[in-house]
Specification:
3 helices, about 40% helix, single chain, mainly alpha, extended
Length: about 80
């Protein structure tokens, strides 16, 4: 199979690596399903140049949940 979505390859290593490396796979998965594009279509853009883009906010929440975040999620109404 020569077609690749990821711009990198996986190889076995004995080096210690972060368990957060898998988040790159989640990001590619989101891209391949077209979720990012759909979020950008469905959610409004920020009202100022200082606002967070909807996709960036939602991606941060997704990463937080996948990574096992347990702290209070400010601005979500979720007490954590």
């Amino acid at each position: 199979m020569t077609d690749r979505i990821l711009s990198f390859q996986f190889k076995q290593t004995r080096e210690k690596i972060s368990d957060r490396g898998g988040l790159a796979i989640i990001d590619e998965f989101i891209q391949s399903l077209g979720i990012r594009k759909q979020i950008e279509i469905e959610y409004p853009r920020p009202g100022s140049n200082r606002g967070i883009k909807p996709y960036e906010y939602i991606r941060t929440l997704i990463y937080h949940f996948i990574d096992g975040g347990r702290s209070r999620l400010v601005g979500t109404g979720y007490p954590g």
